[in-house]
Amino acid sequence: MIKLEPFSSEDFQRLISWVTDAKILVQFAGTKFKYPLSTDQLVAHLNESKRHVFKGVLIPENNVIGHAEIQVDEPGIGLISRVIIGDPNYRGKGLGKELLSTVCKKGFEELNLQQLDLNVYDWNHQAIHCYRQVGFEVIPFKKRITIFNGEEWNVLRMRISKKLN
Q1: Which of 32, 125, 130, 164 falls 20 to 30 Å from 156 in CA-CA distance?
Q2: What is the largest CA-CA distance in the chain?
Q3: Which SS3 state, helix, strand or coil, does residue 111 take?
Q4: Domain with residues 2-119, CATH architecture
Q5: Inter-axis angle of helices 95-105 and 125-134, nearest 10
Q6: Is the pLDDT of residue 164 over 80?
Q7: d(CA 53, CA 84)
Q8: ω into residue 60 within 30 of 0, thus cis?
Q9: Where is each N-acetyltransferase domain found (predicted)?
Q10: How far is CA 104 from CA 9, 58, 90, in A?
Q11: Is residue 104 helix, strand or coil?
Q12: For residue 153, what pLDDT is reported?
């Protein structure tokens, strides 16, 4: 089981240690940060309003294994971003799906959001598969491209809506 706890300055070095090269940084954070990730960048990031930043804690071990965020720019709609299972020992075990499900639950139940979107690069098949397992679907979206080392990375937008019972 994964629980979410607030991400704070005490978590900076752990997150920085997970981002071992520029490609991982862009894959994880888009163009938000510059490599190498630094505490100055994270301080400025945490001070932005409308952003809910979490660390993912594996229970019962109480190990911090991941990171995720929800940004709320308009009522009822959130954008999930910067999702990572950072500790390599926990990758490939289905914990990304669990982390994302927990983030969605937080968004729908505690933040009262009706819709959650996320962006993913179209070549990141493992992440797309994970997001689809949680219930996200690719939606039409304006074409967005990130250039990394001369390569064009196409951005897909995925969405999940709150299920009404």
Answers
A1: 164
A2: 47
A3: coil
A4: 3-Layer(aba) Sandwich (3.40)
A5: 50
A6: no
A7: 12
A8: yes
A9: 2-163
A10: 24, 17, 20
A11: helix
A12: 98
How would residue 163 be classed by pLDDT, with cut points 50, 70 and 90?
A: confident
- Quick check: 28 and 148 in contact, CB under 8 A? no
Give the whole-angstrom CA distance, residue 52 versus residue 90: 23
The Cα–Cα gap between 36 and 161 comes to 35
Q: How far is CA 124 from the centre of its chain?
A: 14
pTM of the model: 0.95
Give the β-pairing of 151-161 and 115-121: antiparallel
3-state helix, strand, coil in the chain (%, to 5): 35, 35, 30
Neighbours of 87 (CB within 10 A): 17
The pLDDT tens digits of the residues spanning 64-109 come to: 999 999 999 999 999 999 999 998 999 999 999 999 999 999 999 9
Q: Exposed, middle or buried: residue 29 (CB in 10 Å: 0-12, 13-18, 19+)?
A: buried
How many Cα atoms sit within 13 Å of 158 on the Cβ side? 21
CA distance 24 to 12: 16
Cα 58 to Cα 10, 63, 93, 133, distances in angstroms: 17, 5, 12, 20
Structure tokens at 95: 């914990």
Domain boundaries, the chain: 2-119
